Amino acid sequence: MSKVIISSLYDSPEFRMACRQFDQAADAISLPESIRDRTKHPRRCIAVSLPIRRDDGSVTLYEGYRVQHSLSTGPSKGGIRFAPDLCLGEVAALAMWMSWKCALVGLPYGGAKGGVSVAPAQLSRSELERLSRRYMQELIPFIGPDIDVPAPDIGTNEQIMGWMMDTYSNHIGHLIPSIVTGKPLSLGGSQGRREATGAGVAHLVCRYLTDVLKTPPEHATIAIQGFGNVGSEAALALVQNCGAKVIALSDERGGILNPRGIDVARALAYHRYQGTLAGFEGAEPISNDALLTLPCTVLIPAAVQRVITPEIAAKLRCRLLAEAANGPTTYSADKVLEQRDDIEVIPDLLCNAGGVIVSYFEWLQNRANEYWDRDTVLTKLFAQLDRAKDAVEAQKRKFKFSRRLAAQTLGIERVAHAKQARGLFP
Ligand SMILES: NC(=O)C1=CN([C@@H]2O[C@H](COP(=O)(O)OP(=O)(O)OC[C@H]3O[C@@H](n4cnc5c(N)ncnc54)[C@H](O)[C@@H]3O)[C@@H](O)[C@H]2O)C=CC1
Ligand SMILES: O=C(O)CCC(=O)C(=O)O
């Protein structure tokens, strides 16, 4: 990767954060200098121009990206984000985290991430379809079921994955469902993928409440920032599977609070209809920042990165921080959390890994052309998360690391070892 491109990635606070985390983890495990840059920096960065015809006949030019961070252990894997102000550095950081996550939970994948700098809510459905198809069209030379396999992330969904799969399949000449995961069931999607990330978060929250905090989940109060795919499914699973009480929810327009408990199914129906939680009856309004510092048993940031700053970390009043979002806690905020012995953290690499695990199951089902029922998917998912949790806890105990450092060192070490074992070209 060119030095000019790498140095431009450092303009992004997310990329700087991911690199500082890497450096800290590499020092902690004494990773040889000779392998560090090769493991840290992305293998490929792709940037594409996407001219899209708007419904009024005008043309808007969007920028799209795909970063393939590591290809050493299998095809690269990771979501596609449609968000305003997205930049290559942010995508590269997210791709780096995908590499550690896939390695941590034992998937035969490297990490990738992609996206378009766009506010999807400002496009009509047909404009969104044209943008999704054009993005996939531009990526065709660089991806494939054995090269790089996209999935949904912020601002994208099953329908967008369906359009992308159709575009790729039309180009090849026959149906290739395994080119993306998180597709509609009718196009080879997996049972359980839609709820996988949130259900995985809820499963781990219950395990940590029971095993570490010694608190019955039904006594726990929960506050969740972000009410998209991950936040809403985590809220539902925590209520339905664990008997917990959700007291606060939010989306980007603000939040709602009811200390007696929010009817999550009703909030979801309201949100689907109104497009926001604002105005939901049976709860009072609360700002996103106030939600983060509410007294509660479990705080779940499930929206964007870097919302927990050092100032907020000092004011948190939860007992368990379950990082459903990628990178919600800044590097400096993490130092504050390490000094606080009253908060347990389930780091993002472990906490939100349910999504990519079930994406792997979807890819396997597509390739075998054999489909599993929902119970099979979720049982396998929870078993795989439990194995990763046990590995993180063992690493934490063995080296007296924080739980985040334990997860990162396990992921980084596995990727670096694979690179070393493959050797270098002379
Ligand atoms: N979808 C998936 O399977 C996975 C997603 N993640 C991560 O989970 C997080 C959420 O992703 P999704 O739920 O898929 O996205 P989504 O697009 O379905 O939902 C995002 C939610 O966050 C809210 N939001 C956006 N900006 C916000 C802000 N500044 N403050 C508060 N809320 C804000 C939106 O209103 C929406 O409710 C992201 O960090 C993503 O990378 C991680 C693993 C898998
Ligand atoms: O399901 C996938 O392949 C990727 C999920 C993802 O983007 C993530 O874990 O952050």
From TrEMBL:
Keyword 4Fe-4S recorded: no
GO terms of molecular function: glutamate dehydrogenase (NAD+) activity; nucleotide binding
Keyword match Oxidoreductase: yes
GO annotation terms (biological process): L-glutamate catabolic process
Keywords: NAD, Nucleotide-binding, Oxidoreductase
Domain Glutamate/phenylalanine/leucine/valine/L-tryptophan dehydrogenase C-terminal as annotated: residue spans: 190-423
List of residues binding NAD(+): 197, 229
Site (Important for catalysis): 153
Residue positions binding substrate: 77, 101, 359
Active site residues according to the UniProt entry: 113
Family: Belongs to the Glu/Leu/Phe/Val dehydrogenases family.
Protein name: Glutamate dehydrogenase
Record organism: Cephaloticoccus capnophilus
